[in-house]
Structure formats: structure tokens, C-alpha cells
Amino acid sequence: MSEAMLALRDVRRVYETASDPLVVLDGASVELGRGEAVGLVAPSGTGKSTLLHVAGLLERPQSGDVFVDGKACGRLGDAERTAIRRNGIGFVYQFHHLLPEFSALENVMLPCMIAGLSRKEASKRAGDLLERVGLTPRATHRPAKLSGGEQQRVAVARALANGPAVLLADEPTGNLDPGTSDHVFDLLLSMVRERGMSALIATHNVGLARRLDRVVTLQDGKLVSYEDNPT
Ligand SMILES: Nc1ncnc2c1ncn2[C@@H]1O[C@H](COP(=O)(O)OP(=O)(O)OP(=O)(O)O)[C@@H](O)[C@H]1O
């Protein structure tokens, strides 16, 4: 059992390739306390996305385990892992992955409806979230009609739609200009703080990462303190 909201213990993730197996994570461990926001800054190709996929129960490690609110997830079946992911973990990606044929409001409603809310309840919740990210006037617009920053704000609202306790973000502002990036990052962080969520945020921007509680990096497949090993 763990006091941590999210923990990775001794995770090993190896990809089979045409040549030698590629060991990406090799004894990676990290614990996120309740309400703790941790930055992950590491060079390209060192395994940040892999780590977030394992942490978010999208990929299974070859060994080691992931604990969500103290629950070991390694031996759970796919259906149970999906349920934990849907209800307990929010994701924000570099490229928003919004559904192009739906409006901003509908994109945020969707996870609520998948979780079982009625259309009316989902619409109310999505409307409140869009208001929080300052997008009420754009609620009926499709993603293509929104700016990059607005699209990411919709993606943040969508990630929080089911009230997850954990937020995982993979370069959430990597596609935005510096000013917009700052704004979206601050918005994301203030919403994480308001809700007492635990967050693991991968970013190439050390300045943004330093606004979080601590910063870690990947070295030889392990997570170490960024301060000890700046990349
Ligand atoms: N499904 C896969 N099969 C084989 N190799 C993979 C797979 N996914 C990732 N890799 C390899 O694993 C390594 C780590 O990739 P990953 O995407 O986790 O790195 P990253 O730190 O997120 O990179 P970036 O910052 O460029 O997004 C890379 O060498 C990548 O090519």
C-alpha cells in the first residue's frame, strides 16, 4: 500500500525492434503525493511519453507496477484498468486530439457521457468547465475554428471533465507560442491546484517546470531529481 496518489515502482519497459530490444525504462520509480505537481524534463527520445503511457495505464510494463491511489494495477484486467483510467486519470497531449466533427462543448461532454452522465448533466458540467477556461463564447465552435491556445484550453477542460485525481500531461504547451504557452500552463496548473489533483507534466520548458513542486528527469531509464542531473 502507498500513501501516494500515483506511484511507479521499478518499472521496466522494453520495446522489441528489428535489431536489439530497446530498453526505455529500466527501474523507473516515482511517487506523487496527493496534490503534488511534478515536472518531467528530459531530452527527446529518453522515454517521457513511454513513462506517461505506463503511468496512465495505456501501456503495461514488462516488470514493476503502477499504483493508483494505492491500488496495484499490474494484475488487473483491461476492463478494470480502463475504468480506473476513465474515472481517475486525465490526459493532456501536445496536440489536443479533439474530435474535429464536434463542438468544443461536445468534446468536453463526451467523457462525461461515457462515464454515464445524462446529456443534460454532461452539458452543464462541460459548460462550467469551458467557462473556467474562458471559452464560453467559443463553446459551439468546432476545433478548426479555434486558435491553438483555445484548442488546448478545451483539451484541459476535457481532461478534467470526470474530476480525475491524477493529471498526466505530455508537452501540454509544446505546440504554442511562448506567451500562449505561459497562459495555458498557468491555467492548467491553477485548475490542478484548485482541485487538489496530483500531476505529472512532461515539458521541454525548464522555466515552466520550475513552477511545479519538483522536477525530475530520466537518466538511463530511471527517474532522478532534475536538480542533480540537469539535462
Ligand atoms: N511502440 C514503440 N515501439 C518501438 N519503439 C518505441 C515505441 N514507442 C517509443 N519507442 C522508442 O522509445 C524511445 C522513447 O520514446 P518516447 O516517445 O517515450 O520518448 P520521449 O522522451 O517522449 O521523446 P519526445 O520528447 O521526442 O516526445 C524512443 O527511442 C522511441 O523511438
TrEMBL record:
UniProt GO molecular function: ATP binding; ATP hydrolysis activity; transmembrane transporter activity
SMART domains for this protein: AAA
Pfam family, one: ABC_tran
One Gene Ontology term, aspect cellular component: plasma membrane
Superkingdom assignment: Bacteria
Transport in keyword set: yes
Record domain ABC transporter: where: 6-231
Coiled-coil intervals: none
InterPro entries: AAA+_ATPase, ABC_transporter-like_ATP-bd, ABC_transporter-like_CS, ABC_transpr_LolD-like, MacB-like_ATP-bd, P-loop_NTPase
Listed GO biological process terms: lipoprotein localization to outer membrane; protein localization to outer membrane
Keywords assigned: ATP-binding, Cell inner membrane, Cell membrane, Membrane, Nucleotide-binding, Transport
Family stated for the protein in its record: Belongs to the ABC transporter superfamily. Macrolide exporter (TC 3.A.1.122) family.
Name by which UniProt lists this protein: ABC transporter ATP-binding protein
Protein's organism: Pacificispira spongiicola
